[in-house]
Amino acid sequence: MDREKFVKNVFSQMISMLLASFIFMVVTQFIQWFAGDEGGEAVTWLTR
Description:
By secondary structure, this protein is an all-alpha fold. It is built from 2 helices and no strands. The mean pLDDT is about 85. Keywords: Membrane, Transmembrane, Transmembrane helix.
């Protein structure tokens, strides 16, 4: 496997991981904001 392909692969994986964590963060924040105080319980129930 040549170096350029490897670097591109690692880079794309890093970007997708960052994107996924960012989306998860936004979704949990939105749930908390949307549901108010009950949002925390919803998040703990979802991530259980």
